[in-house]
Structures are given as C-alpha cells and as structure tokens.
C-alpha cells in the first residue's frame, strides 16, 4: 500500500499486524515530537515554608534572642533556606535534563507497532529519570564529601567551636560531638532539635522529626517534615519566636495522595528529586506522521488468481510445444526404425549397417522439409524454396543454439543467496567465506549496551584495606592524645584516613552512576557488523567513557577546590588561617592571619605543604617522620600531594601506633608491596585518583548477545559462479520457443522474396540473349 494514511494503517494493522511492515522515510525522530512529560513536586516546594517572606519572618523573629548553639532557632532560617534550595535545584535539574532528552532521537528503521511503541518510550523516559537523579546525587555527594574532607568550618559553629585558651591570644578549635559521634570523623552526626529557654540549658520543646548536627545540610537530610503537617506544631514553633505578630501559615495537607510518608526523611524525598508524580503523554499519531512510511506491505496465504495462472501456462506451453515438435518426430522415427529392424531377419555386416544408416540420414536430410505447403505442392520452385528454408532454418537454429549455449555456459554471474532467520552458528559459518558481500539487516537497530558489554574493575588495594575502616579511624581519633600541636600527624590522621575512604566511595559511586547511564544508552547499527569491527567500536566507546568519567570527576573536584580557596573558607582545624585577639582601646577584636608552610602562604595558594611529623611535648622536637605524608592548608590538598608508602611498611605503622596515647596494638595488615600494580609505592594520591584508583579494567564484549538482539530476519550474500545445467536448460527452452517461432515466420518470407527476385532477373536476361542470337 503506497503512502498509507494513519487511518489506513490502523485498519490494516488490525488484521495483518503480524506480517505488516512499514519502512520509515525518517528513521531519527526527536523525542519532543512524540512524547511530553509533566511532573509535580512535593507540596513543600509550593508551600509558604520555602517562601522568602517566611524565611525573612523567621530571621527577624530571632533577632536579639540569647540562644544556645544547639537551639533550633539558631539554624531555623538556614533549614528553610536549604529546603528552598533543594526545590530549586530539583526543578532546574529536571528542566535541564528533559530539554536534553527532548533533543535526543528515537530511532527506528521500520514503523514500531502501537503495542510496542509506548513500552519503548516509557523505558527511555524511565532511563532518563534514573540518569538525571543519579547525576544530581553524585554531584551533591562530591560536594558534601569534599566539605567534610577539608573540615570546613560552619559559621554557625555547629561542627567546630573556637576558643581562646587561658593565657593565650590565639584561638584553638575543638570538634563538637553529637552523642557519641564527633564532627572530626563524620559529617552526619546529629541529635534531636529542641527549643531552649535561655539561660536554662534544659530543652523545653522538641521539634518532632527535626535534627541539628555538624552541618545544616547533613542534619536537614536526616530530618523529616512531619512538624510541617501539624498545625499545632507550627503554632508552638511560632510561640517561641520573639514577640511579633503571628505569621499566617497553613500546615501541609497530610490527606493528599503522595509517594512519600509524613515521616519520610528529606534525603528520601531528594533521592527522587522531590517529584510526586510523573505524567508521560505518548503521541503515537505524531510518531506515525514523523516516520511517514512511503509504503506498507503485508503477507497472507491465498491461492493463485486466474490471470497469474493463464500467463504462467502460456509461458510454459510455448517452450513445451517447441520442445515436443523437435523431439516427437525424432522419437517416432526412432521407434519405427526399431520396429522395422525387429521384423527383418536379414543379418548385415557392420559396414552394411553403417552404409544403410548413412544413406538413411542423407536421404532424411535431403528430403527434410520443415515448411511443407498445404496442400502439398509439386511445383519445382515451391519445393526448392521449402528445402532451402529448411536448411537455412536448421543452420540459423544450430548457430543460435550454439551461441546461446556457449554464452549461458561460460558467462560469470553474480549469484545472490538469501538465508531466512539464520542462527548465530549459520552466520558465523557463512561469514568466514562471504564476509565481504554478506549483509544481514537488523530487525532491531538500537540495542542497549547493557545487553552487549559488561565492564568490571578492581580498585587499588587501599580501598579494601583496614586503613579506611571506621574502626581504624575511631582508634586513631580516640588515642591521638591531648594538647598536641595542630601540625602533628596524630591530629590530622583521622581526617586523612577518613578522606581516603571518601575518595574510594566517591570513585565507586561515580563509576556506578556513569555505567548505569552508559548501559542504558544504545548501540545503533542497521545491519550486523563483523566481530572485529564490533569489538573495536565497543572498546573505543568504553575508552571514551573511561576518559570522560575521569575528566568529569577531576574537573568537579578541581572546581570545588578552586572555589574553596577563592572564598578563603576557614578550615575547622585552623590549618589555613589562625585566629588571634587584637585588643584596642575600645573593645577586643578577633583577627585572622594566614598560615605558612615553608615559604608558601595559604593566602596565595591552597597547595602549600610540608613534611608531616609526630612531635614531642615541645613542638620543636620531632619524634618521627611520616614518610610520604604532607600537611598543608587543607587536608584534601595535602593528601593529594602525599603518597601511601608508609602503608606498605609494617615498621612505619607500628611506630605510629607506639606514639598514640593508649598504644594498644590495633591488628592491622599493611599493603602488599609485591602485588602487581599499575602504581608505584611512591605514587601520589593525586596520581592514583587521576586513574580513578583503578588497578585493572575488565571489558567483556558479548558479540553473540549482540547478534541475538539484532536478530536479522534474513542474510544475503553474493558470489561469482557459472550457470548450472538446470538453469541453462530451462533458459534455452524458454528462448528457443520464441527463436523457432521467429525463424519460422522470417525465413520462408526471406527465401521466397530472394527466389522471386532471382527469377525476375533471370527472365530479363533470357530475352536479351535470344535477341542477340537472332541478330
């Protein structure tokens, strides 16, 4: 059916859906033409709680109040700002990724049926949703972990407290604890949020579901919104604010249908980008209009119609009649001779038999007449013309037959062989011989990479060692000792080991996210490609994926590092700036002074470092040098420039433990220096991180799976050969019928015309001769 309309297609699809095929004139179609995605956010994102008026109200209501650091009112403004930011980030992420999705293309060489199309599009939408969520959470995770790794100081003093020791003008910092959890070793330490009536240190009102902790973001992620669903809770909250008019605010509606519970944590909501509902509208008619098949074809079982039967019989009868006309007379003559021979009892010699046979053949040739007149004529000229026509017919027929026979026997032809639904084994066999001309169009031209390739990897052994375990980090932290100089390795060690563990987690999460996206992307080919080409293409894609994964992670880290340095953000351990009191005549003011490591100051560079040591009671006494380790402005920057060589040396680890305040030996096994590795013992952490801390990549390419998903309905190949005997015979029979007819029509006319012209000429010559003789 040529250029069928959508209505026509719908009608024929009802009856012939199994065999109906409609090649698309446009195989790549933008998703924006065929699908529309709407979404609704969690109701908190459209509530008053994230409005600027409410945040300003909270901010002004807390002015002038004397509050403890752990009073909820201290961080309330920042909590609502965090919620507002989460809603804005989620909205921006979804909008950007959907615009990117709409510009991608749905690829189909043939029109996808109505039954299959919605499921394929919904799968693509689901993959986009998963991808955008994973990428968002990964970026957010990297920021959170680098913030912790650098021990960045919160201005709310919720993770470190700064104090001026007695008889000192310089400030010292101390990590806060929430329960048994220290902000020096974890950013997720939290405790229940309360309101306090200053100066009474006992809590007077609990904020259900809300927590405070080292960082507002980390505490908010572990909090719930259950108070925001309770009008009484909201009213009680406002009652603890300073004397102002009550802000008119309505609690969230707990009766609304939702994908979340009232006590779902903010982290659980954010892990779904705070989306309540996705609405996917699939426009199949639009897809049909974009595909715009120029024709549709379908097959069904039936009997041959009358016209086909008649034309076929006519073609066959022509050749059959000619063959019978030539064969039957010869057969009859042969039978007669046999019969005559059987009735004769005369015994003849071989010579006599040969002579008789030759005379018979000669007589048959001389008297052969394929053009006898009807009724038979005794006219000498007529009989001569018939014999001449017969001999000319035989000559031309034999010559034509010989030419056709030689042509069809000697010519080289390109023969095409088609194999229906070949198995992988069949394809492998024919590909060995006919690889250059073999073509197998795929019935599915887009295949998810997860079906055809699998990537495994092994990390640097540090990521599976005891050095990044919670037990080792807590052991170091609890036994580091008191009154240590801030540059002592024992002070920095908990943060160093914690950051190494975060690097391992960060890389693993990055790879998982990237590979999840990669596996849902598609490998597109219209026909089966050879194994070698498939392998090289797939490996090139994997190498590109590895390169961009490394590049993106390093770029993200670099951006965060540069931003941190540019903002001169204070480290909670006072490693980049130290604070001191500068008294004057009116008041006491606190000033900051940049730290220096060697001739490098943290004001101009975050990369300043020096060798790490364990010091004695006097800060000038060096007890032990930690080989390969550096300290600097930020823990992260110093660690990147450090090496792991101490972790390969049991003596080094034992020496560190011997300088702890309670040196009970922690059972620990050092890294294996004899292990085959892509890194050296003195490779810096930055060099290891630049290769994603991967020791080995294992890429498994599943070519057979690719073939099975491509699933060609047929394979065809061509090769040079000569015509076979059956083809030559059938071709000659078909041609001779027409040739005999043409010769029988043309030769008598030609011979008669020539004979007539000769007689005319002879008649003119004879009278002229007679006249000359008479003279």
UniProtKB/TrEMBL annotation:
Q: Which UniProt keywords apply?
A: Membrane, Transmembrane, Transmembrane helix
Ranges annotated as spanning the membrane: 306-332, 392-411, 725-758
Q: Which domain of life is it from?
A: Eukaryota
The name on file for this protein is Uncharacterized protein
Organism lineage string: Eukaryota, Metazoa, Spiralia, Gnathifera, Rotifera
């Amino acid at each position: 059916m040529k250029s069928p309309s959508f209505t026509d297609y719908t009608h024929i699809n009802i009856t012939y859906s199994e065999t109906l095929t409609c090649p698309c004139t446009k195989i790549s179609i933008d998703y924006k033409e065929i699908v529309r995605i709407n979404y609704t956010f969690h109701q908190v994102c459209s509530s008053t709680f994230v409005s600027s008026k409410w945040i300003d109200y909270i901010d002004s209501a807390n002015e002038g109040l004397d509050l403890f650091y752990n009073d909820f009112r201290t961080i309330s403004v920042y909590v609502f700002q965090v919620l507002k930011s989460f809603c804005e980030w989620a909205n921006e992420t979804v909008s950007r990724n959907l615009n990117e999705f709409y510009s991608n293309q749905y690829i189909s060489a043939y029109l996808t049926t109505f039954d299959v199309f919605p499921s394929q599009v919904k799968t693509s939408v689901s993959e986009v949703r998963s991808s955008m969520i994973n990428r968002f959470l990964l970026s957010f995770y990297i920021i959170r972990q680098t913030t912790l790794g650098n021990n960045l100081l919160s201005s709310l003093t919720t993770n470190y407290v700064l104090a001026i020791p007695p008889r000192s003008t310089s400030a010292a910092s101390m990590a806060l604890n929430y329960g048994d959890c220290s902000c020096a070793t974890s950013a997720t330490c939290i405790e229940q949020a309360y309101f306090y009536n200053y100066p009474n240190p006992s809590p007077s009102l609990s904020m259900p579901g809300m927590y405070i902790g080292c960082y507002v973001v980390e505490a908010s992620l572990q909090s719930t919104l259950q108070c925001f669903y309770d009008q009484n809770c909201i009213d009680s909250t406002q009652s603890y604010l300073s004397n102002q008019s009550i802000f008119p605010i309505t609690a969230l509606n707990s009766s609304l249908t939702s994908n979340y519970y009232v006590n779902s944590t903010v982290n659980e909501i954010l892990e779904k980008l705070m989306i309540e509902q996705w609405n996917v509208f699939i426009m199949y008619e639009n897809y049909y209009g974009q595909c715009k098949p120029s024709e549709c074809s379908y097959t069904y079982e039936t009997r041959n119609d009358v016209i086909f039967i008649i034309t076929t019989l006519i073609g066959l009868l022509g050749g059959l009649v000619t063959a019978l006309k030539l064969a039957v007379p010869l057969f009859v003559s042969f039978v007669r001779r046999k019969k005559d021979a059987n009735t004769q009892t005369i015994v003849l010699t071989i010579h006599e038999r040969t002579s008789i046979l030759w005379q018979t053949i000669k007589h048959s040739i001389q008297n052969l007449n394929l053009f006898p007149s009807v009724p038979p004529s005794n006219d000498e000229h007529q009989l001569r013309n018939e014999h001449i026509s017969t001999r000319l017919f035989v000559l031309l027929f034999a010559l034509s037959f010989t030419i056709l026979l030689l042509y069809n026997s000697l010519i080289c032809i390109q023969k095409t062989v088609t194999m229906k639904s070949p198995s992988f084994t069949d394809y492998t066999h024919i590909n060995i011989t006919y690889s250059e001309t073999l073509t197998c169009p795929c019935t599915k031209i887009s295949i998810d990479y997860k079906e055809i390739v699998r990537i495994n990897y092994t990390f640097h052994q540090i990521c599976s060692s005891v050095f990044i375990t919670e037990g080792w980090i807590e052991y170091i932290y609890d036994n580091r000792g008191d009154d240590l100089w801030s540059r002592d390795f024992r002070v920095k060690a908990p943060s160093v080991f914690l950051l190494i563990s975060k690097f391992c987690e960060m890389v693993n999460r990055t790879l998982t996210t990237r590979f999840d996206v990669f596996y849902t992307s598609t490998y597109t080919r219209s026909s089966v490609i050879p194994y070698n080409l498939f392998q090289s293409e797939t490996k090139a894609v994997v190498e590109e994926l590895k390169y961009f994964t490394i590049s993106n992670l390093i770029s993200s880290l670099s951006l965060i590092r540069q931003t941190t340095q540019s903002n001169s953000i204070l480290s909670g351990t006072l490693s980049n700036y130290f604070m001191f009191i500068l008294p004057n005549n009116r008041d006491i003011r606190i000033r900051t002074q940049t730290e220096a490591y060697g001739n490098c100051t943290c004001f101009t560079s975050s990369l300043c470092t020096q060798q790490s040591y364990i010091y004695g009671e006097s800060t000038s006494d060096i007890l032990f040098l930690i080989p390969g380790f550096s300290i600097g402005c930020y823990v992260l920057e110093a660690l990147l420039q450090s090496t792991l060589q101490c972790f390969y040396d049991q003596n080094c680890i034992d020496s560190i433990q011997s300088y702890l305040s309670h040196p009970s030996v922690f059972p620990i096994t050092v890294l294996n220096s004899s292990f085959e590795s892509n890194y050296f013992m003195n490779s810096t952490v930055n060099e290891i991180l630049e290769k994603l801390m991967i020791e080995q990549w294992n890429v498994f390419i599943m070519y057979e799976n690719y073939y099975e998903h491509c699933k060609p309905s047929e394979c065809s190949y061509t090769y040079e050969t000569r015509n076979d005997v059956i083809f030559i015979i059938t071709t000659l029979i078909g041609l001779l019928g027409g040739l005999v007819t043409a010769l029988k029509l043309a030769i008598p006319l030609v011979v008669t015309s020539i004979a007539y012209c000769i007689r005319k000429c002879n008649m003119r010559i004879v009278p002229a001769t007679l006249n000359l003789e008479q003279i």
